[in-house]
Amino acid sequence: MKFSSRTFRFVFTVCVLGSALLPLRAQVDVSAPGLPTVGVSLSGPLGGGATEIVSADLRRTGEIEPVGSSSGQYLATGVAGDSGITGQLVNKRNGQVLFNETFTAPGRKSAHQFSDAITKAVTGLPGFATSRIAFISKASGSKELYVADIDGFNVRQITHDNTISASPAFSHNGAKIAYSSYKSGYLDTYLIDVASGSRTRIAFFPGINSGPAFSPDDSTIALTLSKDGNPEIYTISTSGSIENRITRTRGGETSPSWSPTGDRLVYSSDDHGAPQLYISSSSGVTDMDQLYTGNSYCTKPDWSPDGKSIAFTARVSGQFEIGDFDLASREGHLVTTDGGEDPSWTRDSRHLVYSKNGRLYLLDTLTHKSLPIELSVSSCGEPAVSR
Amino acid sequence: MNMPRLALFLALTLALAACSDDKNNPNYGGMGQDGSALPNTGDQVGGSNSPDSGIPPTRPADGMNPDKADYTTLSNDTVYFDFDKATINGEERGKLVAVSEWFKANPGHALFLAGHADKRGTPEYNRALGERRADAVREYLVGLGISADVLYATSYGSDRPAIDGDTEEAYAKNRRVEIGVVIKQ
Predict the structure, then answer these.
(1) Of A191, A203, B6, B50, most Cβ neighbours within 10 A?
(2) How many structural domains is chain B composed of?
(3) What pLDDT band is residue A224 in, cutting at 50, 70 and 90?
């Protein structure tokens, strides 16, 4: 991993010296030998399907190579039935049982839970097999809010409003989605309970009320309000009362995203020309710390769960690509080469879900490999991954 | 100077102030035209000293849906914008003078100013860009003597293109502020 990031930094530097930020190509094959191997074999009435789900989940992490049950450094076995999965993981080198646990979530979710437990035990990293994606689709003729599992299954339409739904964000506990909609005729922000579907309009000031993002403790929402005469970043409570104004410029500020510690926000501002990324305190109007990403047009930042980097959308030679800004080195580089926008991090701070031409993709930011997320609906955009 | 001329003068001054050339700003962050890399000034910009320049928006007292406005009567006066810009070009300003004249000749109305962006860029940024375009038209009309209380700005971002397609011509027609007429409540 260190090798790859150093390689990209070198290529990046060459590009900047050449005064043209060229798309980068993945140069490392991560499926190369070296990944821990896990043999997966589930029995029981749903064993075959569960084995497939778990193997796909583990491969998707980029950290584990699933193999047949007769080989592998680890062995994941269990019984899958209607009531869930009882599974265990054994380190074959020393015979140690790393866990033996029952996962009772309905349907495919118990297999995803087993996958995340394996990922955690083998790599120490959080898996994202149980994550869901909130997104907007125009498949029904109007832009409606949907959710799906991150592997593309279980697509569910949440709104049926025949208007424009926009910019969804999951709460960190996964129970709620904040999003914006023209349901009233104006761009207001709503809070929706995912399980019950009950909905509350929380921000409806004159002007636009859009682009909500939950604070890490889910108590506060950052969003764009134009009630002062131009779009500014504010924080509000989940019941809609103003907590803090964050920006005060003549331009437009959009797409706030919280640091994992909740003390800062990253957002885009076009106060000084084309949109750029800035970081500010989340507790009031302070100085804006600009992130020099190397790109002249940057929007839609998303702060990684580990706090180390910020993904964003960059305009490069008239195209839109996904960029990643490393906060330690304060350098940015592109992680796509053939288009993409609206990146959203997964729990492992390694993968991003993004949209391109109406489809959603899962990108590995280390290998720069992208795979389409196969959904049963088309015309998709504005994905947001649950944490 | 008679009153309309004074109003026009004020409007132009406002507009000039609003589009004061960012390139003269030592902290200017670069252009979007070709996507070339930027100079890195290393300075912090913006912050607590920047003034609010906008006029706080209003919604009609009855919460009327902007879709119920009549966008036909003044459809010839739709204002078009450059890519990623919310400043009103010189050749578009005559349309707003015509709108202000229509408005004064037809008392008892209010206007919706619906801002739009072309499809390029992230949808959320385009919502704010459409809003800034609508705000710019609103401020210009205020400068021409129309009360801000009867000018309702709204934005649809890139979600409601006038023309579908991926051509420069379609993009140019979609970067706009449409003007809708309603009977004042």
Answers:
(1) A203
(2) 1
(3) very high
